[in-house]
């Protein structure tokens, strides 16, 4: 099922702007215009809350510092980006 997350403040490489994030199979498929929403699927409108696509909360989900022989920032962020 496709999902769309939109806000008037989505962080993109060009800065904050109104946008809709299309998510398919658990991954961001595209960043589109704010008005561009799917006809099917779920739309979640976050108003003016800032959306940070692809942000990984490293202090909660990564064992660094400590236990870096098992997982560190480098390996964990790459695993998260690949969907592993």
Walkthrough of the structure:
This protein is of the alpha/beta class and 84 residues long. It has helices at residues 58-61, 73-82, and strands spanning 3-12, 15-24, 27-32, 42-45, 50-51. Strands 1, 2, 3, 4 and 5 form a five-stranded mixed β-sheet that branches. It is elongated, with a radius of gyration of 15 Å. The model has no long low-confidence stretch (mean pLDDT 82).
What distinguishing features does this structure have?
alpha/beta, 17% helix, 84 residues, elongated
Q: Strand percentage, roughly? A: 35-45%
Radius of gyration: 15 Å
Task: Please mark out the parts with pLDDT under 50 across 5 or more consecutive residues, or reply none.
Answer: none
- Strands, count: 5
Enumerate how many helices there are, as a single number: 2
Secondary-structure element sequence? EEEEEHH
- Residues in helices, as a percent range: 10-25%
Shape from CA axes? elongated
Biggest sheet, in brief?
Answer: 5 strands, mixed
- Indicate the structural class: alpha/beta
Integer average pLDDT: 82
Terminus-to-terminus distance: 20 Å
Summarize the structure.
With 84 residues, this protein is of the alpha/beta class.
Architecture blueprint of SSEs:
Blueprint: E1 3-12, E2 15-24, E3 27-32, E4 42-45, E5 50-51, H1 58-61, H2 73-82
Parallel strand pairs: 1-4, 1-5
Antiparallel strand pairs: 1-2, 2-3
